Amino acid sequence: MPGRLPADSPYGRLIPGKDSFRDSGLTCPAPQGDSVLGVTVIATDGLTKRYPSVTALDGLTVDIGPGVTGLVGANGAGKSTLIKILLGLAPATEGRASVLGRNSALDGAAIREQVGYMPEHDCLPPDISATEFVVHMARMSGLPRTAARERTADTLRHVGLYEERYRPIGGYSTGMKQRVKLAQALVHDPKLVLLDEPTNGLDPAGRDEMLGLIRRVWTDFGISVLVTSHLLGELERTGDHIVVIDGGRLLRSESIAGFTQTTSTLLIEVTDTDAHPDGAGALRTALAAAGLAVEPGEGRNVHVDPGEDQAAYDTIRDTVAELGLGLVRMEQHRHRIAEVFQDREPAAVGSGSAPAEGSTGHAV
Ligand SMILES: Nc1ncnc2c1ncn2[C@@H]1O[C@H](COP(=O)(O)OP(=O)(O)OP(=O)(O)O)[C@@H](O)[C@H]1O
């Protein structure tokens, strides 16, 4: 018989006592196109959570639809508190929240049947294997023994754990542990997963792999994702939508495309040559001498604002050719999410270590 975890279990499992699950296994395609538009997966209205010494959420009102949504905020912004309220694991002081159309304050158990949760902190038992642990969590969610084993094998394979899944978790790397936490959130085939800082502690390559896995949870299986991060740029390539909170308040809620609108600026990337070991620098100098509005900068990309001057494109092409550089790309520059927040008030900028070179993150 499946057991029952206390409500304060880090995984928030409560036993639904049901004997059937969505039978889509791991093959449910993501809904596409208009069919997903206008559907609210998570909604909050004036949501407030006050602890004795701090207000963690302050009148938060936001609607979140299907797909991958990044919930971004500095450490202490209120992300984990929001997740706990959504799951019905903590009461709000004021306001209301609903998940998949159910009231979080009243229907927590029903919500947790349909939602997977990956906690932020390390809370895995070190002495048992990933397989044993995930089977256990599947059983806790009410899956019969055989189905629990099958889905555990499928899910661990999906997150990229193979032979290691039979070894004790205590010997796993941080990345492997994060994968186990993701697997247990997915094993009961939820409609939505809430992932709290899943890239924490990972190196840049590990972050990219985890973000790719998260993206596929939606594109391959149609499971919506709310993923938190304190790194603003990290979710740029992974998410469909970003919600930014600060001090428990909504700063911005927008599609990624909205954040990263194209600008009028052209982005030009060129190769270096023996004659011009700094190809981009040589191009900047030559284009400025030709009268174009070249933005100051370093690195391999050159930014030029052509304004209304259609001849600018020809000038750029001809200048690259005259310098003997290779033209790798010339396209309209898109804002990076981090640039959108560059002019923010210092008070709104929180802590958080920026990841190493090569990752996409910028601390909020
Ligand atoms: N149980 C609690 N009792 C008192 N204060 C709390 C409690 N839980 C959270 N807080 C406070 O509420 C604020 C928001 O915390 P929360 O954990 O939601 O932030 P977060 O955005 O998830 O940050 P982090 O990534 O650092 O966990 C913080 O100031 C935190 O110290």
From TrEMBL:
Keywords: ATP-binding, Nucleotide-binding, Transport. CDD domains: ABC_DR_subfamily_A. It comes from the Bacteria. Residues 42-272 form the ABC transporter domain. One of its GO terms (molecular function) is ATP hydrolysis activity. Residues 344-364 are annotated as: Disordered. InterPro entries: AAA+_ATPase (IPR003593), ABC_transporter-like_ATP-bd (IPR003439), P-loop_NTPase (IPR027417). The keyword ATP-binding applies. PANTHER family: ABC TRANSPORTER, ATP-BINDING PROTEIN. Belongs to the ABC transporter superfamily. This is ABC-2 type transport system ATP-binding protein. It comes from Streptomyces aidingensis.
